[in-house]
Structures are given as structure tokens and as C-alpha cells.
Amino acid sequence: MLKKVDVRYLKDPEDVGLENPIFIEGLPGIGHVGKLVADHLVNELRAEKVVEIYSHYFPPQVMVQEDGTVRMPVNEVYAWKSNGDSSDLLILVGDFQSISNEGHFELVNAYIDIAKRFGARRIYTLGGYGIGKLVEEPYVIGAANSQDVVEELKSFGIKFEPGEPGGGIIGASGLLLGVSKLEGIDAACLMGVTSGYMVDPKSAKVVLDVLSKMLNLEVSVEALEERAKEMEKIIAQIKEMQEMAVQQWKSDEDLRYFR
Amino acid sequence: MLKKVDVRYLKDPEDVGLENPIFIEGLPGIGHVGKLVADHLVNELRAEKVVEIYSHYFPPQVMVQEDGTVRMPVNEVYAWKSNGDSSDLLILVGDFQSISNEGHFELVNAYIDIAKRFGARRIYTLGGYGIGKLVEEPYVIGAANSQDVVEELKSFGIKFEPGEPGGGIIGASGLLLGVSKLEGIDAACLMGVTSGYMVDPKSAKVVLDVLSKMLNLEVSVEALEERAKEMEKIIAQIKEMQEMAVQQWKSDEDLRYFR
Amino acid sequence: MLKKVDVRYLKDPEDVGLENPIFIEGLPGIGHVGKLVADHLVNELRAEKVVEIYSHYFPPQVMVQEDGTVRMPVNEVYAWKSNGDSSDLLILVGDFQSISNEGHFELVNAYIDIAKRFGARRIYTLGGYGIGKLVEEPYVIGAANSQDVVEELKSFGIKFEPGEPGGGIIGASGLLLGVSKLEGIDAACLMGVTSGYMVDPKSAKVVLDVLSKMLNLEVSVEALEERAKEMEKIIAQIKEMQEMAVQQWKSDEDLRYFR
Amino acid sequence: MLKKVDVRYLKDPEDVGLENPIFIEGLPGIGHVGKLVADHLVNELRAEKVVEIYSHYFPPQVMVQEDGTVRMPVNEVYAWKSNGDSSDLLILVGDFQSISNEGHFELVNAYIDIAKRFGARRIYTLGGYGIGKLVEEPYVIGAANSQDVVEELKSFGIKFEPGEPGGGIIGASGLLLGVSKLEGIDAACLMGVTSGYMVDPKSAKVVLDVLSKMLNLEVSVEALEERAKEMEKIIAQIKEMQEMAVQQWKSDEDLRYFR
């Protein structure tokens, strides 16, 4: 049985033994900037998967993988223990955000509950900030849930422009900041400026750069460009097929109305 | 954890010590007339915030403020203790109405529960009544949940025209009247006639005038025009950006369908 | 507090003391045929209101009445005790069907629970069957939840044409038959053939005729035509205003997205 | 009272006494391939109905049958005891998939619970794979929830092409594989390649052929073509009428907004 929000711990937080980890979120979103950076971190750091999250708020489907096996839509949390120079990390990556409005809130409640169980002391959410035109020199703009954290981000060169992003921050990247504020956890959102038209590894690179500095991490950015190309290819392919599948499913809806 | 309708008391109703207060609602709506008046009252009276209401029925996003910090969508109740010449007041203001049909009912249940806990003896909801063309001399039309209150409103010059508003009163301003009737609480809705095309301080002024008379309040209307201009500016700005953000978010939806 | 489906008994079913009553449903629907007939019955028989049903599945609004007072959307059950020549009756009339798919099921559950509490032994649902063109000589087609009841209806001249209505029966009139079948209660739907383009008193008249014969009731049909004219007028008026109200409300939605 | 997902056992699983049955799903979907095959199996094997599933996630309507009686939308599970040469079977057929996203998950939870109560050791879901053009020689492509099952399917000539179906498998056929994987039950989906434009008996035949081989079943395919023709005819007829009914219902929606 799959619960509405079904959080499955692969390891007990105590056994993982992270010390005051920083929780990083990189789910799909604008330009896939956040997802690119977070997936990259999980891979480069060889972080360990510790939680799987299934949900009725994800699309009602399975994905078919190259080898013919299927898998459920899932979001995952990975743990990484630092050697001491950096913070320990919890990294949330995955397939989907909620496909309903209310689901966003229930999923974010679950993410924050996970963060707390691992003793997280801070949350960084990663995303893109689309400006609707090509960006020559991408940079990172920020938002945070306290004035102190705003100042801290500024000291790392992150830009704050009054009234940006004016439309607010939609989805998990935004709600995580808002709800964690109510819970007394510091949180910030790092947004790579991007056109918003495609997967943007250049924007992801500047986000990764500043995040690494903030975390005192050393992470190669080599694979990032390649990962983006691959992602772009897969997306194009899948979008085409998905459209076909959904269209057929829809055009078939009338047919379902009979016996 | 954020509950579906999450009511947080900043102060115990008993400690606030209002006596038979009047509950005033001014949430966003047609012409923003109700919101203008209620925000204005909160400011002019320097009322004290006593309740915050968060909800899964608000949009799944946070707003970014001028200083780079974020805040959750929230509705708030302010308390004001009169010096004796007027009634004590509870004023409900905020960012949003429910974005789902069913959410309207759950939020209104919560508003009425708050009103009751503070011992409110009457409810006034404020709104605009859009007529689709410019209004030279705005006036106030009313609706109430008992014949007695209708007569009382008439005695203050509030207009009642048979069959208006014909479409009923949609959202919190309407449901508060209906549900409070079932709870045995007197309630009325004051609607400033407005074009419905923009934030309308002239309409807000006539609503404020009659409300002040009814409450025996003295409130300056000076700042109202200015407040409306500011609101209009912010709305224009935010609408533009919001559209961009939502479009990107939507156009990005397909991208979310993969890993 | 208003529950999702809020059933309020004005009188205890035992005190009403109906004997094996027949439950009749006439909610708004195609051509308003069912509503016309059921409203007419309630008026002509001077039936007594015994239950009110409020619901989150009705539209989030109140209606403003001629005298300036408001009322919640509500469905109602009326009881009528026969003098012995006819069956006792329970008549369900009201403002709305559910505005969500799932709400239909929850409301029908409530209606059947009410029917059972009053000891109803049979259910008749009333509706229109729209054929998309003007009908010179309207007649009544039927559907029932058992073969026995089908035969009984035929004996009263109700028509059964194989495969009609082909699209099934949507909403409360249909679901009441289906769910009561699972509960072991006989039920039938009487549909007056109608164009479907307007409130149709001629169609209502033939439904009322056959229903009266089946119930051995004597009910004047005089007022029916008049009632329909009035209904048509009110609908036209309200539709116009409702459209205006809803449009403004919608066009105002962006405005709600700010503070 | 009808529960959200209302599973009604006509017989106790123990009394049915199936031994490690295989659970087969054939609900409406692309080209109605899965439904055709599963309905055919139920008929040819004269399987016995053991479970009925009603749900708020099906459309809020009843279907009217040729004889004038109505029936609720329902999905059904049939049981078949083999004579020993083949596996025992549980076959899920029915009218509808969920009409809401979240309903898919709740229904699939129920299907898997049923499978487990009957001791099912494996699940096969049947469907169509639409390619948007006519298919001369239909064949079967597969997906499974473990590498072992993939290999097994290959040994029966079922095709696996990397990245197909690229859009994933939507609805019960997909989710059953995903959720059963989490429950430790082997499962596979057999998809007959089809245009997706109509009920496709040729595609159903190749699915039935390979399924029979896998199950060591002997089932005549004679009736399949005829069944498809009949289905096609009924669908055309019903679609036409359904459209009329739904249009009238919708065009009548404004009318419902008044009393």
C-alpha cells in the first residue's frame, strides 16, 4: 500500500550519524538548474541514498528504463558525511514536484520532517530564475528566510535585487523556505539566472561554484556540461513520446466510458 | 508542519480582553475595496496582530520581500481595544482567499471559530460590487443575514436594491454571512460600487465613511488614496512578474516528467 | 462550523411519523424538469420541511434575496403525510448538485441515509431527457434499478427504448438509482423528454401526470406553467449577473496574488 | 453507503481456494487491447465473479442497460481454477480507470490488496501501445518490475526496445507494476502495438497468443474479432449519446445556479 506521502527510510538517521547536516533541495524546475546541481553533487560526492519518497501527488504512471524494467516516480534523499572540512550534507533530488496545489504543502511538510530527523541546521534550495532571454554571464540571485542569512549570502557575492523574483518562488524551493521559517530553521534559495528555455549547465555551474564556496566543498564541474547535454537529449526524447502517450490516453478517454 | 488550515494564536483571546468585539473582514476581492479599507483600519488604529492563518489552500509559493527575505502567504487577524466610544474590533486582512472551492468553506469555518473565541457579537465583511463601467459617485450597497440588520444598515444610508447583487456574493465575504447565520451571529456585507477594473480608493472611501459612522470611529481617510496608488503600482509590477514566473513554471512542466 | 456534507434535521424522523414513504428527488438538471415537478409538489401539497443539507460541494457563495438578506446554498427534504389514499412522501429539492465529481457520491450517500432514516421504501428521481430539438408532444422515458420496477413503470405508459438514454444518467438522479440498488431499495428515474434548451413546463407536466397516477395523488397542474415562466425569468436575470460576477472575480484573481 | 474505494467480496478468498494465482488486469485503455483480452478470457474460461469494486473516483453516473435497468460503474475481479495444466487466475476487468490523478493510486492499492488476499504470486497487466499509425503486423512489447521477469518475457518472444514506451506507462497498468515492486510481487505489462485509433482485435490477438503461451492456457481466439466489432459499435453509439448528454449537462450548469 502506498500512502499519500510515503516516506521510506532505508537507514535510521541515527545510524547514518550526520552532524548538523545542511539540507540541499534540487528538484525539477526552471531550467533544471537546481536538479542539475543537486544530481551532480550526489554523483560527485558518491552520497548514500537514505530515504525514498513516493506520493499520490506524483503523476499516476511508471517510467520504463533502458533495460525494460519500470520504476515508480520517486524523490530521494542522499546523505554525505564530510571528512571534517565541510558540513555534512543531506541532498533531496528526484523526479517530480507535486502535480496538485495542496500536494506541494504535504510534500514540503515531509521534507522538513526528514531534515529535522537528521538534525539538519540549515536548508539550501536550488533553482533557476528565468528572465526570458539568453543570458551571457549567468549569476546567482538569492532569497532567504532571515535577514542574517541574506547578509551571509551577500558576503559570498550572491545578488539581491529589490523586488526580484517579483512573482515569488513557486513550489518546493519556495515553500521549504517559508515553512522552515515557521519551524525556526535557517534557509536560503540560490537561483541561477537563466533563459528558462532549456536545461542550462552554465547557470548550474555558477550556482555550484557559489554553493561549493559556501560549503567549503571541492567538487569538479567537469561532468556538469556533459550531464546537461544528456539531460537535454533525454528530455527532448521523452517529451515527444510523453506527448504521444498522453494524447492517446486522452483521446481514449471517451472509450473508457462504456463496458 | 503546516496543517491544512493552520491557525496560530500569537496571544490568548482572554489576555487580549476584547469586549464583544465586531469582526471585520477585508480580504482581496473585486476592486480590492475591502482590502483597502481593512488594511487602512489596521494601520490607522495601530491594531495589534493576534492571529496568523496559514493554509494549504493558499498558492504553493512564498513572496520575496524588498530586503530579500521571504514570507509565507498568510492571513492575519488584528485586535483593537476601543477607548469606550466605539466597539472593540477584530480585523481580518491578508494575502489570499482560497484557491480551491472546498478551501473557501474550511477557511471560513476557521474565521468564524476565531471570531467566536474572541467573543465577537457581529461580523462585517467588506468588498466591492463591480458594475463593469466607471462610477462617478460611488455608493455602498449592502446585504445582511437578518432582516433586522438590513434595516439597521438602511438607517445609515446603505442601499438595498432588489436582486442586487444578483450573482450572489462569492468567497469569504459571502460565506461568512451565510455560515454565521447558521451560528446565530449577526453579519452584514458592505460593498462599494466600483468599476471592477482597478484598485478603487474612491469606492473604499465611501465604504470607510459609512463603516466609521456605524462603528462611531474616527479614522482619517487621507492615506487611503496614497495607499491605493501604491497598491496599484505593486499589483502592476507583480502581475507582470508573476505571469512570467507562472508561464515558465508551466512551460517547464514537461521537463519535470523525467529523471 | 459547516461539515463537508452537513445534514441538519429540523424534526426527528420518528416524530414526523411517515409510513413507508416514497422518496422523490427533483434537483436542478436538464430542462429543470425534475426541479419544476418537485418544487411544484412541495408547494401544492404544502409539505413540511424536515431536513436541510449544506455542503462544501456547493459553490462557495451566498445568494442575496429580494429583501436584502442572504442565504446559504441548501438542499432540503420535505415531508408530506397522506390522508391514506396515497403514499406518504419525502421530497428532495434544492439549489445545487455537487460541483465536484467526488461530491456527487458523498451527497448521494447522505440522501440515501436520510431516506432510510424516514423508512422510505422506494425512490423516484425526476429529470429531463434532452434530445436537442423542440419536442411537440413530450412523453416520459424511464429507467429503474430492477426489472420488476421497469415492468411497473411500463404499466403506467412510461416508455423504455433500448439504449436510451445511451449516455447514462449523470448526477444525483442516476447515482441515487445505482446506490439504492446496492442498498436493496427499489428506485426509478422518470425523465421528461425535452429540448434541453430551456425550462420546460410542458415536459414537467407529463412527468407530473404520470407520477400522480403512480402515487394516486391529485395535484393541480395549473401553477406549473406560471412557475416555469417565473423560473425562466429568474434564470435569465441571474445568469447575466452571475456571469458578470464570476468574470470580475476571475479577472481579479491576479490581484489577489499580492499583499 | 458507498465508500471512496468500495471493495465488496462476493466470496471469501479462502473458499474460492485458488493456489498461487496469477492476477491479470485488463481495464479500458489505449486501443482497448487490454480490456478486449481480459473480457475475452473471463468469457471463454467462464470465470467466476468474486469481487466488485465501486468508487467515488469513477464518473458520477449510472449506465442504462438494454432492458431499462441501470447499473453503477464497477470494476470486477473474476476467479478461475485451472485443471492443473495452467495457473489459477484472477482477472480484473471493468468500466473505468480513475477520473482523478490521486484516485489511480487509491484504486491500485485496492487491486493489490485483493491480489494479496487471494495469494497471487504474479501480476500481468495488459494494454495497448499506440504508435499513431496503422500497424500491419502487430506484436507485443513488454515491461516488467524485475530484470528476471524481463528475461522471462523475452524468452516468449516479447519485444523490448530501449526507451519504449518512452512516455512511461500511465494508469493502472503502469502503477500496478510499480507498487507491486515495492510489495515484492513480480509483475509485467504486455502491450500490443496498435494505432491507438480504434478498438484493435488484431493487436488483442497477439497479446492473447503470447499470454496463453506463458500461462499454458488454451483459449479460442474466434470470438475476439466479433467481440471487437460489437465493442466498436457500442462505443460509437455511446460516444455520440454521451457527448450529447454531457453537453446538455454542461450547458445546463448555469441553470443549476439558482433556486
Number of strands of chain A: 11
Spatial strand arrangement across the major sheet of chain A: 1-3-6-7-2-8-11-9
Helix content bin of chain A: 25-40%
Terminal CA distance of chain A reads 28 Å
Spans of chain A of at least 5 consecutive residues whose pLDDT stays below 50 are: 251-259
Mean pLDDT of chain A: 90
CATH class of chain A: Alpha Beta
- CATH architecture designation of chain A: 3-Layer(aba) Sandwich
Strand content of chain A: 15-25%
Contiguous helical run count of chain A = 7
The best one-word shape of chain A is globular
Can you give me a brief rundown of this structure?
Four copies of one chain form a homotetramer. Chain A has one domain: Rossmann fold (3-Layer(aba) Sandwich).
Could you explain the architecture of this structure?
The structure is a homotetramer of 259-residue chains. Residues 251-259 of chain A have low confidence and may be disordered. The longest helix of chain A is centred in the C-terminal third of the chain and has 30 residues, at 222-251. Chain A is 38% helix and 23% strand. Chain A is an alpha/beta fold and 259 residues long. Chain A has one domain (5-222): Rossmann fold, CATH 3.40.50. An eight-stranded mixed β-sheet of chain A has the order 1-3-6-7-2-8-11-9, with helices on both faces. Chain A has helices spanning 13-16, 33-44, 101-117, 147-155, 172-183, 201-215, 222-251, and strands at residues 5-9, 22-25, 48-55, 61-64, 70-71, 75-80, 89-94, 122-130, 140-144, 169-170, 186-194. In chain A, β4 and β5 form a beta hairpin. Chain A has seven helices and eleven strands. The relative contact order of chain A is 0.17. Chains A and B meet through α3, β9, α4, β10 and α5 of A and β4, β5 and α7 of B. β10 (169-170) of chain B pairs antiparallel with β4 of chain C, so a sheet runs across the interface.
